[in-house]
Amino acid sequence: MVEHGDIRVVHRGGSKINFREPVLSHDSRLLLCASGECVKVFSSSTEECVHDLQGHTDLVTGVLLNPSNHLQAYSCSADGTVRLWDFTDGILIKTLVVGFPIYSLYASAHHNGVLFIVISMASDKRSELFQLAALHLPQSGDQLVEAREFSSVLGDVSSNPAAIAFGQGGEYIASAKGLHLEVYFFKKQKSYRFSLKEDNKKGAKNTFTCLSCHPKDDCIATGHEDGKIRLWRNFNHKREYTYSTLHWHHSAVSSVRFTPEGTNLLSGGVESVLVQWRYNQETQKDFLPRLGAAITHIAVSPDGELFCTAHSDNKLTVIQSCVKVSAVIQGLVKGESVRTDLMVDPRSKALVLNGKPGHLQFYSLQRDKQLYNLDIVQQEYIHESGLQQFEVVKAAFDTRGNWLATVEERKQKDSTLELNLKLWAYDEQTQSFVLNTTVSGPHEARITAMCFCHTADSQTTMLVSASQDGHFKAWQLAEAAQTEDEGPFWSCDFVGAYHSLVPECCCFSADGSLLAISFQEVVTVWSPASWELLTTLSQPPGAIRDLCFGRQSCSKYLLGTTAKNLLCCWNLLTCTLEWSTSMDVSLLLSDPLSENMAAFCSHAGCTDLFVFKPSEPRPLFSHKAICSGKVTRAVFAPREEMLESCEESSQWLNRSQLYFLTQYMDLMTFITKAEEDRLMASSKRLVIDDSVAVTPFYLLLGKHRQQQQEKQDRSFSAERNQLPQGSVAIKELLHTPAHVLPSASFLCSMFVRSLLISVTDSREEKKSEEEEMESDKEEESECEMEASTMGQGQTAEAQETAAPALTKAQARELRRVKKLDHSWLSSLLDS
Amino acid sequence: MASFKPTKIQVYPKLGEKVTQDTLYWKNYKAPVQIKEFGAVTNIDFSPVAPHNYAVTAFTRIHIYGPFSQEPVKSFTRFKDTAYCGRFRSDGQLLVAGCEDSVVRLFDVSGKVALRMFKGHTKAVRVTDFTSDRYHILTGSDDYTCRLWDIPNSTELTSYQEHTDYIRCGITSKLNRDLFITGSYDHTLKLFDARVNKSVMTMDHGQPVESLLLYPSEGLLVSAGGRYVKVWDLLKGGQPLVSLKNHHKTVTCLCLSSNGQRLLSASLDRHVKVYNTTNYKVVHNFDYAASILSLGLAPDDESIVVGMTNGILSIKHRKSSEETKEISGQQKRRPAYRVFVKGKNYVPKQDDYLVSKPVKQHLAKYDKQLKRFNVSKALDTALETWTRFRKPEITVAVIKELDRRGTLKNALAGRDERGLSQLLNFLVGNLVDPRFAPVLVPATEMILDIYQSVIGQSPVVDVQLQRLQDLLEREIGYQQDLLEVLGMLDTMFTSSLPRKEVPCSETFYRRF
């Protein structure tokens, strides 16, 4: 087995953005949220990711605006560092090395030079006890600072960041854990502890879940497990404290938050309703219902204009203070498991998998953004724990992406299984899928597998579904009924069974002429045209787990994996076993664009990957221990542009990219060295580009300038490199409207004149100058022609009138720009 | 933000006939006009010229009715015995009829007395027709002969004695004056040419032939006899084309719709069937009260006239286009146009600031209550009398939705006597419906659980529960019977299937 060093397994997209409370910047324009190992900065109006703040090497556990500088933000991470960022430009200012994993971070404007962090009580990481410590910021100006000077403030705090908050004017800090609320007053250096009873009558659960302190008043709002909100007052006395109770939520309150002025209290929980309570008039409430999923965090911008809620379905919602949703930032929704396989939509090339309950999500891998959610179940989602919901369990696309088949099921404790098979047609006009046929109860038991016929050219599409009831059914698009009000719909064409065994998986051959269905240990091969059983193949012991036809040159092979650690390859021409090997394959899949097959094998708690061709004895690629745990979902996603790697080991990645989901629902992929380098380069270039104001012309010009520079680097001396980069003249020239420019012929003579009066560098050789002069003359005539033919006025030579003191170099540059005009124009026209 | 998703009302496939263009066309007739004749109506013939009067032969009379009159415009009563087969000549001036007394009578349509009497047959004459040159008459009789008569001379021209049983139907060619076809109870159809003295073509129908029909092109011949309707290709020498067996009693009469695309057959089984003449599939069916003996279709299918054994003549007129519109207009009574348009047709000016109002989602009443989590009220709304009887699927959908929300028990509980009996009434009506049973059976169990303690307190509820029990017992009985039948069928099928020699025996069956 060969190991290949140049292909790496990397995390790709879809990181959690609802892990910690999002932070809104002072001007409410930017939104910061912890996302995996980086902090993402989103625009709160356009929903786009502006940039990532990368630098942490472990999970980011908290983001906080610097209370003394509103353009900076702190972030803390489990890697034991606190970093200070300029988040508008994405620059790392300072790194404080603490040395212990940090679980959350707090700061107050009234405590200068001190940060409050939550760390483990004991030095070992696995400890369940946490303490709140004050971290004194060192005054050093270095980039990397050791910060070891901290003192414990409160012991035994909750690791939940929502359970600690600063009080009015930073006078006290409140922390809740379990059934206790602890308030620590900084002046008195004294803490008060208030406890609630374990359980009242009526089955109330008094455990604290979150708290928030009123910014102007001595009041603490706490949320509880049973949906109550308590407002605590008079807590600077041990005995005379009081609290009042608000109750609207029916289950645990996950976040409470006062607005900056303290006029309103926001609360949210599992109900996915944002409730706005008036402070002191608690009977008046505003609701924002149907936010989609349970609210996990609520943030308020410092000016109180915007609220932001994080939801359990990896979503951030930006809400205006008039309780109206203004923007939704949706990440990849990850449930506990992906019950539908990973799929790639043939049209949008988006990754398709289970999203919100009852939805399919279309997730663009290139842009790392959710494109849209398709509502499969089309029922009101009831947010209640213990309620059995309809779940999308199977989905399949046909080859061209015209049809989508989904299966949803709902199993109640004692009643029968409810199954629905839905077929969705792609609508060109709305660019979305529209429900065409609903088959309620397509089978009597769970559907185990479903696939579309693969043929690209055939007129009729066929869907095959196999079920635990021992039957498999073929569904076909029936012709339109005689009355014109109904379009074509799907109906059952064939029902088949084999010895009353349970069909487990089904697969169509690449040309659609064969259908293989595995019935436990036996693979049956059928002809879909006549529904004849052609042959049976079996290799006992062990039931078949996966079936796959070879593609392209290997289409005569049928591969199967059995539960008893066997990978078999049958030759369909001779109907014999070609080869078999003993390995515990957890997942076998074929690349739709090449002959390659990928087999994920679990071995000693890890998963190995083998990529092979069925016709060749040696694997093309193997990678040991790509991740821990089993890989059960993977997909080959076709690339937009083919890679031109000629190395044998990485050729299998040329046409498509392999994505897989680990046990912990991380989306990973394989990346080659060359691709990685390219990505890095592009990201770096983007960073440079960001520093200059971006105008449409800049983009055009900047590109040309780069090309130009490359050329110059090759042909001329270093002198060309010293060109003034952001020349005022060019900028002005490009911003002058075309209609105020003089005629092109007039400009041309001026242009030539500017060449004559230009200052030449002393180091420049005469010879080259002469050459240039000649070429200039040629170009001059060309210029004239171009100017007269183009006539679009997008050239901007008129600038010479405004700025006659162009250097020769600038002028030449201008000329080049103009010469290049053709190319970019044609490229625009082409696109 | 996402709005409330209304309860999904399941659409169930409509049972029974599908609505096709044909059913729409053939249903577009008014309620029939019924006229009582003196005896069985044996023949109906439409005059080929406007205003397309029709002659109805019944017992000893022939009545001529106008297209819209319900009283005969003319009657011929001078028959000694039962009259048969009153037919118009192609110019609509003359009418010929046979009679039980073997005399063939020719009438002027405007006159009363017979113009000519053709005597020669020895038994009842059941078939009469004019040839296409208008000067001859074809007759067929129970004495096994068919004869040609000359009208001006009132003499017999030829006589053919080839049939060996009663001749009960015959038809002349509309294109050739010498050709005619007769059908007899000896099961044969014979094509005669008047220029030769014997038949030129013989076809065996296999049943006593009752009726004949030629297509307008005269390439195809349709014959009816016994339960069969058969189509023959005359151009291929009388080759049988199709045999239709759609009636379960003798087919008595055939008719083509005016455009020749539909064939109608009437039978003693009281049905008129309409066939598509391209694929010979039945596209429509009319039911009548008694066995049908005769059928006539007015030009352009303006009316369908059917004569029955009990002497009733049923006339259906086509609905005029205004009437059709009127009815559809009545169904959709909408508010005035201006109510909708109010303010909608205002075009904003250039500087106007447009405030877009969110479109208000319209929800059904039960949905509104479900949105507010008022589960009992939602169930009450769904159990309102109109919904319960007319749209039981709505009630079932609401019950299903409540079950999905886990609040069905709450919604069912706490009902008074009236509410409970309403609920039970609905269950009695729909519980055994296979479409609703999966939803309603758990609900019924739940109701019985909840109200177990109060059984016996209200006579109304007790009666309902008793009915429910009876219903269930009956249903269980049916199911058992059906399973028995299924078992029997299975045994029969297995024994009739030949053992396959293939090593793997698979069972599959095709489903449509």
From TrEMBL, chain A:
Low complexity: compositionally biased ranges: 791-803
GO BP field: positive regulation of rRNA processing; positive regulation of transcription by RNA polymerase I; rRNA processing
Comp. bias (Acidic residues): 770-785
The protein, known as: WD repeat domain 75
UniProt region (Disordered), positions on chain: 762-808
C2H2-type domain: residues covered: 33-56
Pfam family, one: Beta-prop_WDR75_1st
The entry's keywords: Nucleus, Repeat, Ribosome biogenesis, rRNA processing, Transcription, WD repeat
Stored PANTHER family: WD REPEAT-CONTAINING PROTEIN 75 (PTHR44215:SF1)
One GO MF term: RNA binding
InterPro entries found in the cross-reference section: Beta-prop_WDR75_2nd, Quino_amine_DH_bsu, Quinoprotein_ADH-like_sf, WD40/YVTN_repeat-like_dom_sf, WD40_repeat_CS, WD40_rpt, WDR75, Znf_C2H2_type
WD repeats: 53-95, 201-232, 246-277
GO cellular component terms, semicolon-separated: small-subunit processome
Subcellular localization, as worded in the UniProt entry: Nucleus, Nucleolus
UniProtKB/TrEMBL annotation, chain B:
Record PROSITE patterns: WD_REPEATS_1, WD_REPEATS_2, WD_REPEATS_REGION
WD repeats: 118-159, 244-285
One GO term describing the cellular component: nucleolus
Protein's UniProt name: U3 small nucleolar RNA-associated protein 15 homolog
Keywords: Nucleus, Repeat, rRNA processing, WD repeat
Localisation per UniProt entry: Nucleus, Nucleolus
Gene Ontology annotations of biological process type: positive regulation of transcription by RNA polymerase I; rRNA processing
Subunit relationships: Part of the small subunit (SSU) processome, composed of more than 70 proteins and the RNA chaperone small nucleolar RNA (snoRNA) U3. May be a component of the proposed t-UTP subcomplex of the ribosomal small subunit (SSU) processome.
